[in-house]
Protein: CASP3 protein
Amino acid sequence: MEDVQKSLHRKLFETINKEMTDEDFRSFRSIAQGKGLRPGEASKCNTPSDVLDKLQRKGKIKLGCYQVLKDIFIEMEQQELIKEVDKAEQKLEEAGCEISDEIPQPYENLRPPLRRQSSQPGESVAEKRRRFRSQTSSSSLDSNPSFERQMSPPGSAGTRRGSSTNQPPWTSFDSSSPPKFRRQSSGRSSFEHDDYDITTIDPAVIAERDDCYPPGQGYVLIINNFSQEREASTKDVEGLVEFFMKINYKVSTEEDLSKDEMIDTLDIAKLEMQKAARGKNKFKYSCFICIVSSHGDKEGVKSQDNQTVSMAELQTPFLGDSLKCMAGSPKMFIIQACRGDKKQPGVDRPDEEPGDEGQLDISDIMRSVTTPRDANILVAYATTEGFKAWRRTGEGSWFLFEMLEVFKAKVQSDHLLDMLTEVNDKVSHRTVVGSEPAKQMPCQVTTLTKKFFFST
Structure:
C-alpha cells in the first residue's frame, strides 16, 4: 500500500511538470520563493520538477500534504492544477493515506506570494481563495486556519533600543545576534498586505540582469539618537522597521548611543555580515543599509554624548577593503539630520536644538567616495548643505515620512534612485509655516554601479 501511495505522489509531480507552460513555470518558480525557496535556490531550478523537488526537500510538500502547492496555484490562477491536486488527494485517501491541509512547517522565507494581475482588481488573497474554492467542488482551500495569520500580521507597538530581528514579527525573533542586539521588541507590524505589493518584481528576472544588483535579504541598522528631545523621531523608526521587516530584511535598531557605542554597533553589524558569509551555509546579505537619525554638525552626526561621528567613521567598516564579503554589494547610508544652523520659526521643529552647530560638508563626502574601494556606496541626506531638516509632531521627519510613502507605493516597480528622486520632489513641495517660509531639499551622493531593487 505504501508503494501505491508513493506512486500516486510521483504521478502528481509528473502531471504538474507536464501541464505547465514556460510562462506558468516562471510564475511557479517566483511564487515558490515566497514559500520557502531562496532566490539563489529558485534561480537554479530549470523545470517545475526542480522546484517541486526543492520544496519537498525543505519539507514544504509531503506525501498527502499539498497545501503549499494549492496556495501557489491559487496565486497563479491555475484552477486545472488545483483540480489535479484534488484528484491526487482523493486517490491517496482511497489508498489509505492521511490527507492534511496544514502547511508542514512555517515558511522560511516569509515574503508574501507574487501577486499576478487578477481579473478582479483589488481582490485579496483570502477572497481569491474563497473564489477558487467555490469554483472547484472538491478543493479544501479554506481549510488552513493559519494562512490569514501568515499573510496579515497584527498591529505594531514599536521598537526599543537593542531590538533585532531578521524575520517579520509574526514569527520568532532571531536570537543568534551578539548580546547587545538581543533585547527584543515586542512590536508587531501594523501594515496590511493590501497596503502595498512587494512582489511584483520577479527576483529571478533581476538576478539575470547585468544592470541590477542581485536580489536577496538585506541588513538594516537604524540608530536614533536624542530620541526623547527629537519629537516624533521614534515614529520614523517604527515606520522604517515595519517596512524593512515587511520585505524580509534583517533589522537591528539602537537608540541614544554614545560615540563609542555607535562605533561598537557598526563593528558588530560588520562582524555579523562576515560571520554569515563564512558560516556553514555561506549566506551573503544582498546589501547593507545604515540609517542615522540625530542632530548634526559640519563634521558628521551627533552621538548621544554630544560627540561627532564623521561620515568616514560611519562608512569605513563597510568599504570594500574592510568588508570584503560585501565588496560588490551596495552599502547605503541614510542621514536624517540638519546640515546648517539657520533657524526658521513655525509650527514645525528642526532636527537641531538652538545649541547645535554647523552642517555636514558634502565636499568631504564626495572626496571620500571617489576611489574604487568606495564603489557601490549611496549617501542620502535629508537636506542640502547649509539648511535645516524639518519634522512635524505626530508625523515624523519630512524626509523619512515621504521616503517611506514612496517606498511603499513604488517598491514593486522602481529602483532605489528613481524612488529617491520622487522623494526629493515631494519634500521640495513642503513649506514651514511661519513668518519666514522655510523649505527643504534632500540630496544624494552615489557611487552605485547598478540599479538596486528591494527584492528578496
About this structure: The CA atoms of residues 177 and 451 lie 30 Å apart.
